[in-house]
Design brief:
Layout lengths: L1 H12 L8 E2 L5 E2 L6 E5 L2 E5 L5 E6 L6 E5 L2 H4 L13 E2 H4 L16 H13 L6 H10 L4 H7 L20 H4 L5 H4 L8 E6 L13 H12 L5 E3 L6 E5 L39 E2 H18 L1 E3 L2 E7 L12 H4 L1 H4 E2 L7 H11 L1 H7 L7 E8 L5 E9 L1 H14 L2 E7 L5 E6 L3 H9 L5 H16 L6 H11 L7 H19 L12 H20 L8 H4 L1 H6 L1 H19 L4 H13 L13 H15 L15
Parallel strand pairs: 4-8
Antiparallel strand pairs: 1-2, 3-6, 4-5, 7-8, 9-10, 10-11, 12-13, 13-15, 14-18, 15-16, 17-18
Length: 634
Amino acid sequence: MSWLLHLYETYEFNLEHVGKIEKKHNDQEYTLLPISHTTQTAHVQLNITEDGKYHSATVIDKSDGSTLIPCTEKSASRAGAVVAPYPLHDKLSYVAGDFVAYGGEVKKGEDPFVAYISKLGEWANSPYAVPKVKSMYTYLSKGCLIQDLVENKVLYTDEDGRLINKWDKKYEERYGSKPPIYSVIVGGPESVFIRFNVHSHDPLSNDVWKDKEMHQSFIQYYRQQLGEADYCYVTGELLPSTDKHANKIRNAGDKAKLISANDDTGFTFRGRFNKGFEVASISYDVSQKAHNALKWLINRQGKIIDGRVFLVWANRELDLPGLTEESFDIFPSVSKVKETIPFTYREFANEVAKALEGYKNRLAVSTKSDVNIMILDSATTGRMAVLYYRSMNKELYLDRLVKWHSSCAWLHRYRKDEEGKFVQFYGAPATKDIAFAAYGPRAGDKIVKGLMERMFPCIVDGQKIPRDIEMSAFHRASNPVAMEKWEWEKTLSITCALINRREKSNVALDQSNNDRNYLFGRLLAVADVLERRALGPDENRASNAIRYMNAFSKHPERTWNTIQQCLQPYQARLGRKATDLNRIIDEIGSRLPVDEFNNRPLTGLYLLGYYSQRHELYQKKDKDEDVIAEPINE
């Protein structure tokens, strides 16, 4: 229950955001929902005058359809043939008293409109009703909604006076081009969702679904309708309980629930308990607030991959650095590199720690502001699970972030700045990019989200990177001919970051490292640069060192002999200009013991040696040439 409690506390700490409309980067609106409210996608907006008469109606654009609506426990979880009307805004079959007169079919049992207008009347006649509710009840009681929409050419009928179920070209002779309503609905006219508004001459009057007075009116009214009180397992207080919990957690069409016990035949809880509430009694307020906080947080800062949600937040300080981002996103001013590498492992860790001091200071306001880490996913359309949850001390969380971003760090060149130019940055790659480095850019979302979940313990708990992930990236980085140049360069730097977490090396060349793997990597880099200099800037084909890289990683002695033979024409072409590179080859070769110069496969350390040596050579000034810039992705 701890995750429910922390979500409930988050709601209580952020009450100023309730009902406040916010926008995502794609301009999609979202809000921290008031209790007893949910969201629906509306298709038609019907405006009513203050004295309860029809004013106008319009078809709503898809981008503006998300609507905050009041709901009851039953209506929020309705499905199939169950008649459970929403208190105000609802589908045409519920809100139109003349639905049957225009060809609509009502299944045997309770009439949806009768149930709807009865509940709306109870609200409108309660002491909590506001004038807008009474205006809408007055109009809807007349039962002429479809008639008004047909007369004002929002809905359309056929020659028999029945609503047109699906638009056909034969209706163009009568009505002209396809009406807008048939472009926004899925299914027949009975699925048209109507939202109501009260037309007012007051420019300060809010739309009904954005009016906080309306929200409070229904909350106060519905609170009197709740069931008996029981002990809440989350707060320990005696409050009205509920066994119907919210859906639409990830998006408006999401039917999966985190808490449900409505299957009396599938033995969800039977065998241990007789009734669902005996498993866990949760109060209505806590359930509403916790689920609404979760929806808000997912919209605000969650990352969703193939339906799997990755979320990090603190109760008071929401904008925390996450676990899926790379160093450039979190510490752009710290990790950005211009000419040389300014950091060693320890120096970079200190700089990252300084960058996080602001978060530490803000979080220090409350000792209860722990950091919460959650992963959610659904196996079926109706059930969702918490796959991973941790609540940890804020200081510990930020210290673990410092360790991750400084230990799994390398020099990368695949990011662009605001001007669209490639920039260098030093730090850890994003978990999604690690997935693409290990499994390729065509890896499916299921593979990507699975890897991202497996990386969380590496960041949060300091565990080792799974061996299969590191080895998969290593084999891909050792096979550059299978990729385009930009993809290989990105894969190489990310793989170096993964390997460096274990080796704790630096991008700057380590002249004192005499490890066999590191030295072989250096040899390969010198051969690559030598041939590249001989070919010149106009030749883009891969060097022999790159072509034989995969074989070199498996049989270094045998492949080096082949590479060295291929180098001879290029050494001859460069002449004296190759002297410095030939000297480096000799110097590296002299460090390799005779018994270590064999065909035993290389480890990932050779990639670090290759990268560092190549970086060193590209940073060096040749006596007769300008600085040769290291290749940037194109």
